[in-house]
Amino acid sequence: xxxxxxxxxxxxxxxxxxxxxxxxxxxxxxxxxxxxxxxxxxxxxxxxxxxxxxxxxxxxxxxxxxxxxxxxxxxxxxxxxxxxxxxxxxxxxxxxxxxxxxxxxxxxxxxxxxxxxxxxxxxxxxxxxxxxxxxxxxxxxxxxxxxxxxxxxxxxxxxxxxxxxxxxxxxxxxxxxxxxxxxxxxxxxxxxxxxxxxxxxxxxxxxxxxxxxxxxxxxxxxxxxxxxxxxxxxxxxxxxxxxxxxxxxxxxxxxxxxxxxxxxxxxxxxxxxxxxxxxxxxxxxxxxxxxxxxxxxxxxxxxxxxxxxxxxxxxxxxxxxxxxxxxxxxxxxxxxxxxxxxxxxxxxxxxxxxxxxxxxxxxxxxxxxxxxxxxxxxxxxxxxxxxxxxxxxxxxxxxxxxxxxxxxxxxxxxxxxxxxxxxxxxxxxxxxxxxxxxxxxxxxxxxxxxxxxxxxxxxxxxxxxx
Amino acid sequence: xxxxxxxxxxxxxxxxxxxxxxxxxxxxxxxxxxxxxxxxxxxxxxxxxxxxxxxxxxxxxxxxxxxxxxxxxxxxxxxxxxxxxxxxxxxxxxxxxxxxxxxxxxxxxxxxxxxxxxxxxxxxxx
Amino acid sequence: xxxxxxxxxxxxxxxxxxxxxxxxxxxxxxxxxxxxxxxxxxxxxxxxxxxxxxxxxxxxxxxxxxxxxxxxxxxxxxxxxxxxxxxxxxxxxxxxxxxxxxxxxxxxxxxxxxxxxxxxxxxxxxxxxxxxxxxxxxxxxxxxxxxxxxxxxxxxxxxxxxxxxxxxxxxxxxxxxxxxxxxxxxxxxxxxxxxxxxxxxxxxxxxxxxxxxxxxxxxxxxxxxxxxxxxxxxxxxxxxxxxxxxxxxxxxxxxxxxxxxxxxxxxxxxxxxxxxxxxxxxxxxxxxxxxxxxxxxxxxxxxxxxxxxxxxxxxxxxxxxxxxxxxxxxxxxxxxxxxxxxxxxxxxxxxxxxxxxxxxxxxxxxxxxxxxxxxxxxxxxxxxxxxxxxxxxxxxxxxxxxxxxxxxxxxxxxxxxxxxxxxxxxxxxxxxxxxxxxxxxxxxxxxxxxxxxxxxxxxxxxxxxxxxxxxxxxxxxxxxxxxxxxxxxxxxxxxxxxx
Lengths: 466, 126, 499
Fold this sequence. Notes:
Chain A has about 475 residues and is an alpha/beta fold. In chain A, about 35% of the residues lie in helices and about 15% in strands. Chain C folds into three domains: about 10-65, no CATH class; about 85-345, Aspartate Aminotransferase, domain 2 (3-Layer(aba) Sandwich), CATH 3.40.640.10; about 350-480, Aspartate Aminotransferase, domain 1 (Alpha-Beta Complex), CATH 3.90.1150.
């Protein structure tokens, strides 16, 4: 190639970089041949602990993923394919996205589903922005029981002239831990600050079921749109957003066959009624025909996207989470409606078992209301208890003080969950270990993970805050 | 040669004046530049428009364009047929593809618009 | 009316038959859901397809065969950097230690991943010449939003609330102005100079006390290094604004130019471009962001920190109040970042510089070959990509770049990027990357030249291309006018399955 170009070496092609701005070299480790690099990567992976009995949920859930999902995903035609801008040679991707939109649309009972967003938090923030665009109002209300990361993301997206207000929660009684409807009504009543959208989670961050139909009614009565933040597996058994008046639904699709991977890539679910189809950001795939009359699929309503609308685009989103949407589709197709229902129901059964086991050793539920498979329990000095349970090989959910350090009502609470992969054995282990810890008994004969040193080494603050 | 009974803007809108009312649409040139029109977003009746302000959006498969009010006035009606058949803008840009009908706030504004030959010259220049 | 073509597949819904599938999950106790209030429960099960696993597998295997992919052929897509996706990286990301780790697990349980992320930040900081890096953004566009939000926070922190404008060149990627709008800024678009580079004087005229930032891609979206970048950066800083670099074209300058050292205040990386993580049919990616001193306090939270004892941890809430907060849940698209880390460690410093050398050489070679039949508007050495124009072919034969792109499919190639950047008439943006053999490059150039010749003798065949793909040109107007975005109703037993 150098010969064809008539140059001696490739440096000539970089002459246009001003001398003063040229880099010297990259001060990085030497290249590693595959064998060595593989050993290094394995070594790093081994420094993570995988042997814990985990009851941790809080937005990311362990489920059994049929091996068919990953084996199909490993086909190069799926994972090394580009965005389907040339539909004639991308019908695989395009049909799978159309099917994904249809599957999620059915789960949500909503008409339009975007081809995916980054994660549940970004989808929630985009949903909030949609309500402002659609109503030409600038204020949204978000229930305090929506996942803290999602609320923080909405706040970051809203920093430029749009307002977010928090809807407080009921403090005591049967509805403790859920959205305070009376407070919501008061927030909606301000004539000078009309509300574009009301956002509530179902189940909420504490695992509790919320009065969604009522929240929706209050929102609509004030001319606001209603956004439901939901968990997809629960939709196999819980009434879906479309059935209780949600205009938009957002959520995290990770539970649909996607591994936890320490944070992502996940799957932002975003769906809306037909009326909002031109407001929904992200790609959409629709059905059409080709010149010979064949059924085919194509990205459509593209003019809304950033490459065409530029500064008038609804969102700047370009790359999405297409491969994860495929994973979710394969998971749903493999399990079927009854399998998905069984996942949800079995998780509920295990969670009920967990509730009894923990209450029996002195850790009762924090809230009385109905839950599906996640709930908070009251435990004194929860962070320290969590730490000691870790020493005993139990990842006892999330110490709520770690994610909501300013909320004193959550200082002595753990958020725990169970799914279809949680075993009765693990539950018994958790309860026994908790009983020991609460009684002040030291650990004996416990396995330690690689590289973990268990002594009374002081750490800055007990537990690992998020 | 564009219809001689209409006036035009440099943003490719046309205006048909009848008394103190005007019908507004986009020209065949604009429609062909956009390609197959898929959606037209129009204002509600009653909305007051200033001359040159944006009154809506026309969307094709591969492009989006703002629509600019050629004259000031109040929107009387919009062409509902465009909701189900946006392709009327491509097929009948000066007829059934009309977009909005307004009551003129200042009829003298139409004097400042391009006539047919001036508009033809504009699009010939490219 | 519409026929399912012979190599095409019915939808999942058409394959469904009542009672099929399942048996993956044990049956729950019958009363498992009785404790839930009836009002909260679904009245009917969701109408999801019921399909046996063998058919599910065939469905997805057969569908995959309808896809073009890097693993099947060459993608000369300018601005996308479609390089080979190393298989080691897929193995690494799937290691159970990485894959099963919950993002809220305590730091002490996550030391391996935290160390990997911390090291990755350091590698990206060295590549970019920046002081620090955040791995949080889920994509380049989210990285852009992160950068612009940090810039806004910076100006506000100095009491400067008048800056509401962002300047971009007219060749910019659409995400740049879209990002500015999302962050509440007005975009001012500055026309490029005749040589395709930024017009520094035009920028100077637009820069002022209302400018918050300038967003520049370097090399530009035309594949040309911005020779006047030093002057531009000086002008930006003199006006009190900050300079954002869109790092989409980093594949051209690894080891040759460090944006942070040159004066950029912030930039994003597209790891799914430069660092080989797979595109997955549209995503996922990741868009880490590097910053200089000015923006360091505003990085999103949590950062990955190394303690004095050598252990790693995540920053705690409230530990850094100046942070812009978070733009997503948890720490980032870690699975994607593991792949990028593996790629970067495999190459090392010398390997990365070689990547750019090879990418730039390949692009210049291809430009030389393609120039035999197409106009090359900017007649100087390009970087990792170049733009060609079919304007002359269109004027002579009526055959447009779109048609040429579709005809390339019949030659077995994915088309290049077309009609971007917007400033070139009938443009094709071509980026070979460094992982293609010269035989492939020659075959692609030969195909383009053959099509140019065919345009003179048989333009109709080109205008109706492609002819050999599973489906031919689609009615996109129909799809947009009467959107069918969701399958309605499950096919009953009386309708036969198309296959």
